[in-house]
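Hi F.,

I've been meaning to write this up properly since the lab meeting, where we talked about keeping a consistent format for the predictions we share between groups. The idea is simple: the sequence comes first, exactly as it goes in, then the structure tokens exactly as they come out, then a line or two of notes. No screenshots and no reformatting. I'm using this chain as the first example so we have something concrete to point to.
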Amino acid sequence: MTPLVPVMLFGWVPFTILLFMRLPAHRAVLVAVIGGWLFLPTVGYNWQGIPPYNKYVAISLGLMLGGWLSGQRFKADFKWKLCDLPMLLWCLSPIPTALTNHLGLYDGVSGLYDQVMTWGIPYLAGRIYFKEQETIRDLCQGIVAGGMVYALLCLYEIRMSPRLNVNFYGFFPHEWRQHYRYGGWRPIVFMQHGLMVAVWMAATATTAFWLWRSRLVTKVKGIAMGPAAILLMVTALLCKSASGWVVLLLGCTGYSAYRRSAKNLFFIMLLLLIPAYIGVRSIGLVPMDEVVGLVAEVFDEERTGSLAVRLLQEDLFAARALEQPVFGWGGYSRGWPVDPDTGKKTIKMVDSLWIIVFSSKGFFGITTLVAGMLIGPWQVLRSTGRQYGRVREEGLTLQVVLLSFIVILFMIDTLVNAMVNPIYIMISGALVSWGLTARQQGENDSASLPARSSQARKSGILVTSKTPFSFEGKRQERTCVHNPFSLEGEGRDEGAKSVSP
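Output, unedited:
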């Protein structure tokens, strides 16, 4: 490894603190999380008696210290809510797992540290600093900006081979042979695998495509959104990953569904597909052969074979996990399937995040993980579809539905891969905050409208009824003018008009 590795990993914390001192809090979080994940090296340090320090810890520690030392954390109006319980339980899940497997409290606390740094802090950063319309808009644009920077690096590696990590940090984070596909190179840049890069580029392309087609954003950092979206989509295709292609296809198709659907049914169905798949596969209701047969009709033999291996892993690990179903087997390969005759492992690797969690932390772990990540998207999709009827193209609602879709696509990818990205975790927390803020403002407006209307009828003044967070980023305002000189005390309806928020 080069000297740049410790400089970047240990220097990211003071850099993040400086960001909190100089920038609005939510923008500091965007740079710290997105920039950190895209550019920090995928390596860590393990010392005797000291918690490990790696890419996740550098980002999360910077967020904690930056928020506290700058005072931004104390300025934020944050309170724990019931909807935060699943993520809290997911972070605590190593403790009951360790105790029920007689691994000791120390092992549970160590797992708690890893969970908090990997999942808890990015989630809380989204919950605390992303509530208002401006922060949600900046979040969408930050994703696109991060994708545009990475697109240039990806195109370089597609042409020259995935060598940036070797050139800057002195090591290659995975197997070289896995990054040559279909007669060309697959980029890895500074992430742990090309699959993670492909899904990230597909997610950024989806975000840019939605913002471009809706005309909600015309430029990002001075670059026209149309060319930016095309660049990101082409880069996602050139990443040569079936996962990235599926995410990109679903992402672009989702925009058409958003425009035509009345109640976000397309997105809700995809969301429900995730726990449904985990449920039926964990207890073996859907045979592996049927799934492989369906996939073979779309993808080539190599990709189909890769999926078949993953499904075999699921079958073997699920059977072993059902022997300890509530809190799982814990770590140290205790949940690994073994041959009863030889005592040797029956399989060499495991790929899917959901089966890793199910094996190590049981139904408790996988339930709290899925609920913690999807409760924000669920609230957004249910509230926007139920309250506002017809789906439209612009405004804040498009952005939160888009972000919900991005989290859903990430969770779909975890059904076949184990590529944990704190950016998506941060988005999930931001969606929970938006849902709570929208609900509170709706309750306040509903409570205040009767009193204002009654007072207006008595005094003959202007009455305004507003519906917050409409689909087109405009509030529907209805104005009634009451004539105080009328003998009948009646007013005339001036009709409905749209005004900017």
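Notes:
Residues 77-357+365-441 form one domain.
The chain has 18 helices and nine strands.

If this format works for you, I'll send the rest the same way.

G.
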